[in-house]
Design brief:
The chain is of the alpha+beta class and about 375 residues long. It is built from twelve helices and ten strands. About 35% of the residues are buried.
Length: about 375
């Protein structure tokens, strides 16, 4: 028996008998309105064709997401999935990112489109820096993305990469400071603070030349060899201390600052800080920043001395150095409860052997042990 395919409608409808090759057009009550023989052409309109696969409808020889005829339209190579070799498939460029599949650098910022989309690895880290492949200057700071990432090590998505109060463009074009470092001269005052408030030299750690770094000097533009760096009777200026932005958490900073990894150096036979060594000021500021950024933190200050001289004197001197460091922290508004204790080791825990004067200098120090880190 021939197979019948019937199609009905709400109002006037049709009934088709494919096997008999007849077509009956029925009205709503089922009466015959007309018939004809051999209706294959009409059946072809009523019966859907067999499904056609996407590959048949859109041949894509290189499997890049663009049909071969589309490639002809865009001027790309139908046998190369990435015609401009920028790390993005032609179909991605056209349909996802809106970039030019024939130009490896669509916005002309000296970065290939693929690198902007997926990110350029920051040297020495596991971080990747991304930017827009359609904007030469993604953050609008006046620096091309390629210059920021490749040359200045600044962030193309931030106007002020190091958060020092100076826009990246001003640091690089006008102030000639570092866009990726908040404190170019490591004196404890951020570059923006030096230029805008303290009026000090961001490339000179001791602007007034009195031996006290600007960041620790109460009067950094007035020469005075006093404890606070100010002439007698002149009150010190209380600048807001630098809080440089870091990529690591406060907890990670705390783990790193143990034993000799954070040393503060002292002058010979004295409890006076040795600011001729720039790491002294830098490490004091690191310690201050850590204690200020982590409410739960607590440290132990250990004092040390070199081995020459009287052992009893060295023991007292090492204790005085630890106490001096504690006093400096308290003078800079660190709560007393964060300094869990001070101890003097004399010359019993040397950092280096003492065959040279330089090695003896390395043993005149205070070290910091983090006892309570951030949670």
């Amino acid at each position: 028996m021939p197979t019948a395919i019937a199609i009905s409608a709400v109002d006037d409808g049709v009934a088709i008998s494919k096997g008999s090759r007849t077509l009956a057009i029925l009205n709503s009550v089922g009466t015959v309105r007309g018939a004809s023989e051999r209706v294959e052409p009409l059946l072809a309109l009523l019966i859907p064709p067999d499904p056609i696969s996407l590959s048949e409808r859109c041949p894509d020889a290189d499997d890049d997401g663009l049909c071969d005829d589309e490639e002809a339209t865009y001027g790309t190579d139908p046998t190369n999935a990435d015609s401009d070799n920028d790390g993005l498939r032609d179909g991605e460029e056209v349909k996802v990112y809106g970039t030019d599949p024939r130009n490896p650098d669509s916005d002309g910022d000296a970065l290939m489109d693929g690198n902007e989309v997926r990110g350029v690895r920051i040297s020495g880290t596991s971080l990747y820096q991304r930017s827009s492949p359609l904007a030469r200057d993604t953050d609008g700071d006046g620096l091309m993305d390629g210059e920021e990432i490749r040359t200045q090590n600044s962030d193309p998505l931030a106007l002020d990469t190091d958060n020092d109060g100076l826009p990246d463009n001003e640091e690089i074009r006008t102030a000639f400071t570092h866009a990726d470092g908040a404190d170019s001269d490591n004196d404890g005052l951020g570059d923006g603070m030096e230029l805008e408030q303290a009026k000090t030299d961001p490339y000179n750690p001791d602007t007034d030349g009195d031996g006290i770094p600007d960041g620790l000097d109460g009067c950094p533009t007035r020469y005075a060899q006093t404890e606070n760096g100010c002439p007698s009777g002149v009150p010190p200026i209380r600048y807001q201390r630098m809080r440089p932005r870091t990529r690591s958490s406060a907890e990670d900073i705390g783990r790193a600052m143990t034993l000799d990894s954070l040393s503060i150096y002292f002058q010979g036979n004295s409890d006076g800080f040795d600011f001729s060594r720039p790491e002294t000021a830098v490490n004091l500021q690191k310690l201050l920043s850590f204690l200020g950024s982590c409410p739960e933190s607590g440290v132990l200050i250990e004092g040390h001395a070199s081995s020459e001289g009287n052992p009893q004197r060295n023991q007292r001197l090492s204790r005085l150095r630890a106490e001096r460091t504690r006093k400096w922290l308290l003078d800079n508004d660190v709560p007393a409860e964060k300094v869990l204790g001070v101890i003097g080791y004399g010359s019993a825990v040397p950092k280096a052997s003492e065959t040279t004067d330089s090695e003896r200098r390395n043993n005149r120090r205070a070290t910091v042990v983090v006892k309570r880190s951030c949670r």
